[in-house]
Design brief:
CATH topology of the largest domain: Fructose-1,6-Bisphosphatase, Chain A, domain 1
Helix content: 25-40%
Number of domains: 2
CATH class of the largest domain: Alpha Beta
CATH superfamily of the largest domain: Fructose-1,6-Bisphosphatase, subunit A, domain 1
């Protein structure tokens, strides 16, 4: 395997180029490039595919031995064995389309389906969140840590599973439970950045009833290396081989 730090440096350089693609678009271009994948809530743009293709090509050159699992284009190797990149080219696509500036690029790396490295790039703020298992978590090179807030003193972020309407009642019952105990709840629309907020100590907990591996792979490493805890809603490890629920927190807020 290549040197961890050199590998991360090379990946960050490519992700910055991908962020420039996102920043170069205007509202009309994003609207014209948008289509629906599975119902009106699950949107995709030509930029999602363009960025994933760019990442796949670059990552295959940076680390040829690694497999690839991405959100778009059917690029989904069996990542149960060996090294693999798990990629979301634009996490928060609806935000990207509407110009809400809450979207990011997420690249995780797994070994035998266990997250080992995470890089999340927010091009709007030029924020790189990075972590290598066992080496801590960082924002633009400075260490980050989860906060020590209790649920009563913290803000919770949520995902509402808009693609899975059968979970609507269950979802809002969970959020109502949090709402009665925390300062307030936020719904920002990017799972990866919600996890970064937990890691950086801005929020105390993020939860969602169902999520894809590419949405959370990088964030798992970043939260855990920042001192947080990531499980599914039943307290079990999240899977990189299938959809899962998720709860990421500072370790103090899950017993609500």
């Amino acid at each position: 395997m290549p040197d961890h730090k050199q590998l991360m440096q090379d990946i960050c350089a490519v992700m910055r180029e991908c962020g420039d693609i996102m920043l170069s678009t205007d509202f009309k271009e994003r609207q014209e490039a948008t289509s629906s994948k599975e119902g009106r809530h699950n949107l995709v743009t030509l930029y999602d595919s363009m960025i994933q293709d760019k990442l796949k090509d670059a990552l295959s050159r940076i680390f040829p031995q690694a497999l690839f699992y991405g959100e778009e284009n059917g690029d989904r190797d069996d990542i149960s064995k060996g090294y693999a990149f798990v990629v979301d080219p634009i996490d928060g696509t609806s935000n990207f389309i509407k110009g809400l500036m809450r979207s990011c690029i997420s690249v995780g790396m797994t070994l035998d389906a266990i997250p080992m490295m995470g890089i999340i790039y927010d091009p709007y703020r030029d924020h790189f969140y990075t972590a290598i298992k066992g080496e801590g978590a960082f924002l633009n090179g400075s260490p980050i840590h989860v906060n020590r807030d209790s649920l009563e003193n913290g803000i919770v972020t949520i995902g509402t599973a808009p693609y899975n309407k059968e979970l609507t009642e269950e979802s809002f019952a969970l959020y109502k439970k949090f709402f009665g105990k925390c300062i307030d709840i936020r719904r920002f629309g990017s799972a990866a950045l919600d996890m970064c907020d937990v890691a950086a100590g801005r929020t105390c907990l993020y939860a969602e009833p169902i999520i894809e591996p590419y949405d959370i792979c990088a964030g798992v490493v970043i939260v855990e290396e920042a001192g947080g805890v990531v499980t599914d809603l039943n307290g079990e490890p999240v899977s990189m081989l299938k959809k899962s629920s998720i709860m990421a927190d500072n370790g103090l807020c899950r017993d609500c």
